[in-house]
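INSTRUCTION: Work out how this chain folds

Token vocabulary: learned, describes local backbone geometry

RECORD BEGINS BELOW THIS LINE
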Amino acid sequence: MSETEQTSSESSSTDIGHEIGEHNVNVLGLDIHNPVFMVSAVLTVVLVIATLLFQEQATVAFADMRAWITSSFDWFFVISANIFILFCLAVAGSRLGRIRLGGPDAKPRYGYPGWLAMLFAAGVGIGLMFFGVLEPVTHTLNPPLGVDPADTETARAIGMSAAIMHWGLHAWAIYAVVGLSLAFFCFNRGMPLTLRSAFFPLFGKAVWGPFGHFVDIVAVLATLFGLSVSLGYGAQQIAGGLNYLFGIAATDATKVILIAVIISIALVSVVAGLDKGVKRLSEINMGLAGMLLLFVMIAGPTLVIFSTMGNSVVDYLYYLPSMSNWVGREDGEFLHGWTTFYWAWWISWSPFVGMFIARVSYGRSVREFITWVLIIPTIIGIVWMSTFGGTALDQYFSSGYTGVADAVPELALFKMLEGLPLTGIVSTISIILIAIFFVTSADSGSLVMDIITAGGKMDAPVAQRVFWCILAGLVATALLLGGGMASLQAATISIGLPFGAVLLIMCLGLLQGLLKEGSSES
């Protein structure tokens, strides 16, 4: 690329940023982007009201929607997730991996510990606490790919592999595509930190018109629904834990109260800001999670856990091609009920996690970004699943303990801890850890929605982030009451379908932008 062309490109990008800013409106001290803010807010409020007014009808509608999408578009979700992995690996392994986010002289704003803590807490914290025990046991006793449960050795191998797959490379590749796109076009091209910016190489100035509004609105809705699922799981597990430890009834009213309390705490973090709020809470989370992990390693079957870790890496890579395919599968219930839902969930969560990762990744090289975002969290997932799931499986097969296998999903973790020392204390700490993960998810999710609906501005009034934090709590509450977790999952899948297509196109825009950047630096 010539110097003139490069200058022209940068000028065009800057102009786009200015034109997007012209759509912002100051209302009652707020700095909102029109029409993204209003359309997203109105659609969400209408959904909340309609779901609360027509709870029975909503339950049926959401159930039918989930069944139709997961059975009709399983191929789309599986192919898309595979493409995201291959895309990330290809970019990281090429010369484009040397490009630095923010320019050749950019320096990281956060050290490795803080950076990893924030991306991990935002990305999978609540989920691993809920599914870290549940999935390995469930998939071992009901193995995918037609494996006979009586073949214990194979069932354990594929069961653990299936659990790790849902929280491994596929999930983080989806996050990485969005995070890298946002970081590159914001830090290297000076464009607003919104999803539309990633499409500038493909559509030019059209990204600040109706097309760009559509992309950002879908991103806000995807973030809301994806976050609501996580909040729903968190409330369900905390309620289950309180019932298990203290006998407090795990009713819908309890879950609604829990959501309200946690959102209230999240608001304090929102007001404190990114460095004082999310960063500190994330570091506390990582400390508590590390202590819990170490405790289970020591108090549980230590040798079995470490053996499971080594075997899980090999088994995960061995079964990955088979489980990443949808053709000729006999395990439709697993494919549709678990994998398809997970890929839709991660796609819906990708604006939230991707933008948050982008926000804290200034100064990292593209290769460093992809390596840390894909490989490190996947390794953490393997260690976590092997420790918690491996302990539960050892209890089942070695001691005949069926507490986890017979428990409702939200009690899986607590039933596993029942077989270890200091059950009451450790279970109480686990509830606190889940609650803090709950807070960081709500806080960082509201930050992302605020940035998108403020036209990419990272210094919008705090009141806007407060608004989105409260609205996220209301959505989670409405969907829980209007059909429970099934409705939350259905809403996530429904928005994940169109947004998956958006992400595939985003890959093309990112590739074109990176190629131009690489040419200018060579």
User: Anything to note?
Assistant: The beta strands are 24-27, 30-33. The radius of gyration is 22 Å.
